[in-house]
Amino acid sequence: MAKRQKKQKQEKSKMTRALWAVVFLYVGYIFVQQQIRLHDLRVEEKEVSAEIEQAQQENKELTHVMDIMDTDEYIEKVARQKLGFVKPDEQVFIDTSK
């Protein structure tokens, strides 16, 4: 009977160790998966931050262009170059050699 109880204790002890090993392996697996996910999220965060920075720079440049386009000098320049406008007292010379 003592041998039987000793054998049952040993089997129970083996089962407990096996259970702890499974738990340890599972926790290790989860930890590795979380580290991989964390790394992926950090990479994604850097990419998104770079996109945001680029968009902010582009926004800044476009705001500057809008400010320039709102000036009288720019409007006059475009009217002269693209629309061919001239001031009333100006003489226009046309190059006919082309």
Which properties best describe this structure?
mainly alpha, 2 helices, single chain, 98 residues, rod-shaped
- The chain-level structural class is mainly alpha
Q: Helical content, roughly?
A: over 70%
User: Which value, in Å, is the CA radius of gyration?
Assistant: 39 Å
Parts with pLDDT < 50 across at least 5 consecutive residues:
none
Distance between the termini: 120 Å
- How many domains, as an integer? 1
Number of strands: 0
Q: Overall pLDDT, averaged?
A: 90
Morphology: rod-shaped
Portion of residues in beta strands equals: under 5%
Order of helices and strands: HH
Give a quick account of the main beta sheet: strands, pairing sense, barrel closure: none
Q: What's the number of helices?
A: 2
Quick overview:
It is built from two helices and no strands. The chain has 98 residues and is mainly α. The model has no long low-confidence stretch (mean pLDDT 90).
What does this protein structure show overall?
The chain is an all-alpha fold and 98 residues long. It has one domain. The protein is built from two helices and no strands. The chain has helices spanning 2-69, 72-83. The longest helix is centred in the middle third of the chain and has 68 residues, at 2-69. The protein is rod-shaped. The termini are far apart. The model has no long low-confidence stretch (mean pLDDT 90).
